[in-house]
Amino acid sequence: MTPLDAALLPLIERLDRHDQDIEKILVTIRKLRQQKQEFLDEDEEDPLLLCSESEEDEAETDD
Questions:
Q1: Composition bias, kind Acidic residues: at what positions (predicted)?
Q2: Rounded to an integer, what distance in angstroms lies between the CA atom of residue 36 and that of residue 9?
């Protein structure tokens, strides 16, 4: 191993750790996006939620 390789090795190891951290963050973002979409899909499938929200909106405007 050359002196340059020895000097670069700690930097390469740090970059690898950062890459792993970034990958974990991206996985978390994907999971959160999926949960958000599932939540939005559930709201669209439940007509009672939509009706109750629109009735509340009408009640607020009547006051």
A1: 40-63
A2: 41
Query: What tokens appear for 36 in the block?
Result: 């958000």
Look up tokens 């979409």; give the residue. Answer: 37
Cβ(34)–Cβ(28) below 8 Å? no
Longest dimension (CA), the chain: 80
Which tens digits make up the pLDDT trace of 17-52? 999 999 999 999 999 999 999 998 887 766 665 555
Distance between CA atoms of residues 25 and 29, nearest Å = 6
DSSP assignment string, the chain: --HHHHHHHHHHHHHHHHHHHHHHHHHHHHHHHHHHHHHHHHHHH-HHHHHHHHHHHHHHHH-
Count of positions (residues) in the chain = 63
Tokens of 43: 């709201």
